[in-house]
Amino acid sequence: MTLWGGRFEGGMSDITRTFTGDTADRRLLEFDLMGSIAHVAMLGETGIIPASEASALAVGLRQILEEVADFEFEDTDEDVHTAVERRLGEMLGEVAGKLHTGRSRNDQVTLDLRLYLKAASGQRIEQLRGLVGLLADLADGHAETVIPSYTHLQQAQSTTLGHHLLAYAWMGLRSADRFGNAMSRIGESPLGVGASAGSSLPLDRDLTATALGLDGVMPNSLDAVGSRDYVAEYVFCCAQAMVDLSRLAEELVLWSTQEFGWVRLGDEVSTGSSALPHKRNPDIAELIRGRAATVLGDVTAILALQKGLPLAYNRDLQEDKRIVFHADDTLAGAVDAMGAMLSAIDFHPPSPGPETTALDLAEVLVERGVPFREAHVIVGRVVKALEDDGRSLGEATAADLTAGDARFSAEDVELVDPTTSVRRRVTLGSGSPESVREQVTAIRTSLRR
Question: What does pLDDT average to over the chain?
């Protein structure tokens, strides 16, 4: 069944039907029905169709809504809209033909997708906030577990594992916020603009928007049916969240190696090797890392899909659903998988090297009036002298420090302990145990809101 054909004498070829048909939009069935229920209610209230017919259509649509889980699509259904009207016709007969009054598939499909993405945004926000809560709990438990921080993948300053994990928690909160911000643009109604330039029927667009819980109506009909920037924004939200997860996944891969030895993966989140009996592989993390690449491809695809389209609707836009559904599904699975992985990890990182305290020594000199650039050179020379002597900074004596510069005192040798270094941090957002606990409290407060 198609929703057009009056000006054609012959039927479509099988190739045309197969190539132009869209099965991806079948997951929009529930939202198509919601939009249709609001539409027929408006048609009845405005007197465009008799109230009795509007009521009959609404009853039929609600019955189909109850059938969503078991709804049977037919091969001849051109899209989800066609399937709904076909089923409604089976139930109500000729009056089902009035469902499409004052409406085009052009405004209908973008409405369906907006309703879908509005619901999906709420689900992703909930998932991401759940992962943030898990990270905050882990961070709280490791507020005093001292580790090195890294720049250029070289040990930089000492910090805490809790501080490191909280970096990803804050990323997750921002991702959730992005979805929330996007909802304000997703939640505009295109319904009632028709194929491209509106209708001569007295459609009440505000009425349907209110009934659907949307924030308002799109003010330009061409923009309403011809734009997919809201889809691109949603895909970007998915991509940025996937990139953040991929970064955490990469660290878990590194940390699980013998070379790092920071974590042990639980059996329930590990895989083995078909050839190597000893292996315990972090496949979940590797797949998150790999699937992030495919979502980055989705960003390129949705932008490229729009770049050469004249206004208003073009059939190219049919492909938007495959792109956004893939991005959304990938993120949903990745967040759940990362949560499972983090819940089954034993963290046991080794202590950082004593060189991670070098900046502390320089800052002590700064507190005594030495310009930082000079202090930097002084400490660098102390480290070099110790290396030449086959010793680490952790083996420095008071004599080594004062030989480097007389402004060092004997007590300064205590500063080369990474734990002492972490506890001395006073800046907001630092890696000290106190800062970690303050951040955990702030995150939990945000999650409660």
Answer: 95
Structure tokens at 84: 């709904």
The CA distance from 52 to 42, in Å, is: 13
Name the percent of the chain lying above pLDDT 70. 98
Query: Do 358 and 415 reside in the same domain of the chain?
Result: yes
Q: Which of 13, 152, 274, 278 is catalytic?
A: 152
Asked if the model's pLDDT at residue 350 lies above 70, the reply is yes
Region 342-353: mean pLDDT is 96
Shared domain check, 116 and 232: yes
Can you give the residue range of the structural domain that contains 69?
14-101
382 assigned to some structural domain = yes
- What are residue 155's DSSP bridge partners? 150
Please tell me which residue in 52, 184, 273, 343 is annotated as part of the active site. 273
Beta strand 146-151 pairing with 154-160: antiparallel
Question: How sure is the predictor about 4, in pLDDT bands with cuts at 50, 70 and 90?
Answer: very low
Which of 307, 331, 347 terminates a domain? The answer is: 347
Instruction: Say whether 273 is catalytic.
Output: yes
Question: Per-residue pLDDT for 242 more than 90?
Answer: yes
Q: Distances from the Cα of 156 to the Cαs of 195, 354, 358, 391, in angstroms?
A: 60, 10, 9, 18
Q: Dihedral angle at the C-alpha atoms of 224, 121, 105, 90, nearest 10 degrees?
A: -150
Quote the number of domains for the chain: 3
Residue 100 appears among annotated catalytic residues: no
User: Which segments within 161-306 are labelled E, that is strand?
Assistant: 188-189, 216-217, 263-265
Helices (H) and strands (E) in the chain, counts: 16, 6
CA 42, 112, 306, 22 dihedral sign is negative
> Which strand (E) or helix (H) includes residue 149?
strand 146-151
Contacts of residue 346, defined as CB under 8 A and 6 or more positions apart, other chains included, come to 263, 264, 266
What are the phi and psi torsion angles at 216 (to 5°)? 165, -170
Query: What pairing do the DSSP bridges indicate for beta strands 188-189 and 216-217?
Result: parallel
Q: Is the domain of 285 the same as that of 392?
A: no
The mean pLDDT value for 228-254 works out to 98
Q: Which amino acid is at 391?
A: R
The amino acid occupying position 2 is T
